[in-house]
């Protein structure tokens, strides 16, 4: 492809990306291995080869920091929290918080996940089958309830709806990834619509602070993430400053619920579109669970359910783009990478890349079944990221998605509102544009 054509493609992409990053990727990118462009003097690389993904995210990760695109969109709400922090602060906080999602804690979490999921099943049972439910909203409220119960030992009650609304309003004002950020223009360049987000952050903050206060006032002992933050003392015996404590609670709250809710939303949509897959899922649920609620011990037996989750994460990765900036020089795919270069990895493109997958656009959970792992090449599938910044809640999130999918699919056949157009909207996360209105049709065991 000629240099001018490629430059035009890149500029067109950057402009379209403001509205919808995934719809904007040119078709040709799904066959290309690497795109390198200079835009306004900035080097931009788009990486589609697993070995280059590995280089930037894993083996030479120390040479790359998260770029402005991440920080600018999230800083007003996450401050210095784990998702956006860098360097020594990130290292210390990651070490401190990682035990909260360690495998040895998952059993206890599984019970809370299913108990909380059951409350939503029962709530929906009370409603009329012809009623249309916004599935993303229901699942977001549910996973929000789960993350606050498991990590902060608090039941949100009516505050759940407030947090949900605050975050929706925040997304409406800050959810777009701006062209200026992708090419690293400075933060003082005005971004449209930011003012509205301030009220959303205030509302969000008031609820997060009420959660922390509730715990500070309580005499109960907990063994959870909030306790780790409250008990922390640095080398000088100082406790964690309140602002950082607030930022970490906000970060775990946000990182730990919306992504799982979106994963499940896409899974139910894909199942609706593929009745033959849905039937296989139902067959597995019937043979493993025989109508009872899933438990932690069932998770390894629910191989097909897990494969449905993993395949949904392939086609619709909630975190659909990674952007990093080079701290020093590097070489990627034999091409010199100058200091300051912007490295973009779209998991949406990578997961559907023509040279990496067989039938890349087809929904085929079988490729994730045990024994078929050769179908998935390392670093061509990164729904949880890779390297030192890999998702801290990977095992938590995967288990939660498997348990909730099993629970809901046993009780309901989710039917998309007829005629509703479904299109992925790539902003801060990859959500269905115009939501996912579904009828929750009750299932009975035959
Ligand atoms: C299906 C569900 C989830 C998906 C798809 C997902 C995806 C991701 C991805 C892709 C990243 C890396 C971002 C980057 O490198 O720029 C990430 C980071 C993170 N995730 Fe998740 N996540 C999920 C669930 C969770 C849960 C349940 C938690 C908490 C319990 C969590 C906590 C975090 C944290 C704290 C980070 C930042 C880690 C760091 O920078 O050190 N995530 N997640």
Q: Could you explain how this protein is built, in words?
A:
With 446 residues, this protein is of the alpha+beta class. It has one domain (3-442): Cytochrome p450 (Orthogonal Bundle), CATH 1.10.630.10. Helix content is 49%, strand content 12%. The protein is built from 17 helices and 12 strands. The strands form 4 sheets. The protein has a 5-stranded mixed sheet, with helices on both faces. A 3-stranded antiparallel sheet has the order 4-12-9. Strands 6-7 form a two-stranded antiparallel sheet. α15 (303-315) packs across α17 (394-411). The longest helix has 24 residues, at 194-217. Bound molecules: protoporphyrin IX containing FE. Protoporphyrin IX containing FE binds next to α12, α13 and α17.
């Amino acid at each position: 492809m000629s240099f001018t054509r490629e430059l035009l493609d890149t500029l067109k992409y950057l402009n379209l990306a403001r509205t919808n990053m995934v719809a904007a990727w040119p078709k040709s990118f799904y066959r290309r291995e690497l795109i390198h462009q200079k835009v306004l003097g900035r080097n931009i690389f788009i990486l589609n080869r697993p070995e280059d993904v590995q280089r930037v995210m894993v083996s030479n990760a120390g040479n790359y920091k998260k770029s402005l695109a991440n920080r600018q969109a999230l800083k007003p709400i996450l401050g210095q929290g784990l998702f956006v922090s860098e360097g020594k602060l990130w290292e210390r906080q990651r070490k401190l918080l990682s035990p909260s999602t360690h495998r040895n804690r998952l059993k206890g979490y599984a019970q809370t996940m299913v108990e909380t999921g059951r409350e939503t099943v029962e709530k929906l049972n009370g409603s009329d089958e012809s009623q249309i439910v916004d599935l993303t909203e229901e699942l977001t409220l549910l996973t929000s309830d789960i993350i606050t119960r498991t990590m902060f030992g608090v039941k949100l009650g009516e505050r759940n709806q407030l947090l949900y609304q605050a975050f929706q309003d925040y997304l409406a004002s800050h959810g777009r990834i701006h062209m200026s950020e992708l090419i690293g223009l400075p933060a003082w360049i005005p971004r449209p619509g930011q003012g509205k987000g301030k009220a959303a952050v205030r509302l969000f903050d008031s609820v997060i602070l009420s959660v922390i206060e509730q715990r500070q006032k309580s005499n109960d002992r907990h063994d959870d993430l909030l306790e780790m933050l409250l008990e922390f003392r640095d080398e000088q015996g100082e406790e964690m400053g309140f602002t950082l404590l607030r930022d970490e609670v906000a970060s775990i709250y946000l990182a730990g619920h919306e992504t799982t809710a979106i994963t499940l939303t896409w899974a139910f949509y894909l199942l609706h579109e593929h009745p033959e897959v849905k039937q296989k899922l139902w067959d597995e649920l019937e043979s493993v669970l025989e109508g009872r609620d899933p438990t932690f011990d069932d998770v390894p037996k629910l191989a097909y359910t897990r494969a449905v989750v993993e395949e949904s994460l392939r086609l619709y990765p909630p975190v659909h783009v990674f952007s990093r900036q080079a701290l020093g020089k590097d070489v990627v795919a034999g091409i010199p990478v100058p200091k300051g270069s912007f490295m973009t990895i779209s998991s949406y493109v990578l997961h559907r890349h023509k040279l990496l997958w067989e039938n890349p656009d087809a929904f085929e959970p079988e490729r994730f079944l045990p024994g078929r792992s050769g179908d998935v090449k390392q670093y061509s599938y990164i729904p949880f990221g890779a390297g030192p910044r890999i998702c801290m809640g990977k095992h938590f999130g995967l288990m939660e998605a498997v348990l909730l999918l099993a629970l809901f699919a046993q009780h309901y056949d989710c039917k998309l509102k007829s005629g509703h157009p479904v299109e992925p909207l790539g902003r801060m996360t990859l959500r269905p544009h115009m939501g996912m209105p579904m009828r929750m049709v009750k299932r009975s065991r035959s």
